[in-house]
Amino acid sequence: MLFSLLHNPCSTTIYTIYKETHSWKWTSISAVLPIILGLIVTFFVAQVWRLVS
After folding, report:
1. Which of 10, 27, 41, 50 could form a disulfide with 18 if both were Cys (CB 3.0 to 4.6 A apart)?
2. Rounded CA separation 49/34 (Å)
3. Where are the domains of the chain?
4. Where are the transmembrane segments (predicted)?
5. Are 30 and 9 in contact (CB under 8 A)?
6. By CB neighbour count within 10 A (0-12 exposed, 13-18 middle, 19+ buried), where does 25 fall?
7. How far apart are CA 30 and CA 36, in angstroms?
């Protein structure tokens, strides 16, 4: 559930970022960065949960 709050934006948002920046670099970063952040956050939350319980 936490990952679904942090994962990448919808494809329309990614397309809009490309249309505004005209850069595949920033479009890729804006698509991949939330996925990586979501994975890292959920990993650490799971580890803390295992330590607590």
Report:
1. 27
2. 22
3. 2-52
4. 31-52
5. yes
6. exposed
7. 11
The whole-angstrom separation of Cα 29 and Cα 33 is 6
Q: Give dist(CA 52, CA 8) in Å, integer.
A: 29
Please, what is the Cα angle at 42 between 15 and 39, to 5 degrees? 40
CA angle in degrees (0–180, nearest 5) for 3-50-46: 10
Q: Show the tokens assigned to 37.
A: 């952040």
**pTM, to two decimals:** 0.77
Give the pLDDT confidence of 1-53 residue by residue, as tens digits.
Answer: 888 888 877 889 999 999 999 999 999 999 999 999 999 999 999 999 999 98
